[in-house]
Amino acid sequence: NFMLTQPHSVSESPGKTVTISCTRSSGSIASNYVQWYQQRPGSAPTTVIYEDNQRPSGVPDRFSGSIDSSSNSASLTISGLKTEDEADYYCQSYDSSNHWVFGGGTKLTVL
Amino acid sequence: EVQLVESGGGLVQPGGSLRLSCAASGFTVSSNYMSWVRQAPGKGLEWVSVIYSGGSTYYADSVKGRFTISRDNSKNTLYLQMNSLRAEDTAVYYCARSRWIFGVAQPWGQGTLVTVSS
User: Would the CB atoms of A90 and B45 count as touching at under 8 Å?
Assistant: First the structure.
């Protein structure tokens, strides 16, 4: 099976743009959809991106997702950062049996 | 409103059993793909199990043979029966809905804490 590797933490200032990467260890990142989840402290995860780059209703367009086959990675980009964006972010894809595989999570600090 | 509410968590001794429930409202459990995901204290998310709309069930290797996922259509509720519990099963357990195998996971329940300790 493969692993999804995320940076442990990232930080950026309000109003700026931040990108969180998710690198697949083996197999093509493009072979299965990637989802992104936001988890604020003490709360359940919520989906911010599904099917690589789709936003569920209610998620602001400041959130965007992409796939880069050259680096075999997915990325979550948040523009116009707000303090409310401070949270843990997890990427997730599917293994050969179509079961969920999570990245280790990235703590976003907005300072 | 589409909602999931978990219950059934608590403190249990190693080797014991517990059954978690995930009550759904606003949609039909049996028509969706329903998953259990857990999060150990201070750790990341780990997929545990899924039941497909057609009834097929799958498990992570870490729980295979010990946990059983099921649903009660009359109660519109998802379950996770956990047997032979170990300290490493200590976690918050979340249920989540997807409309198809690769569909967006939405909603998620609020989670229920399972603590395995003597």
Answer: yes
pLDDT at A87: 98
> Residue B32: its pLDDT value, please?
97
Q: Is cis: bond before A60, omega within 30 of 0?
A: no
> A54: which 2 tokens?
């789709």
Rounded to whole angstroms, the Cα distance separating A96 from B113 reads: 30
Q: Which residues of A touch B97 (CB under 8 A)?
A: none
The DSSP bridge pattern shows strands A18-24 and A73-78 to be antiparallel
Nearest to B81 by CA among B117, B109, B97, B57: B57
Q: Write down the mean pLDDT value for chain A.
A: 97
Which has the closest alpha carbon to A52: A76, A24, A87, A78? A76
How many A-B residue pairs are in contact by the CB < 8 A criterion?
Answer: 56
Interface contact flag, A98 B104, Cβ < 8 Å: no
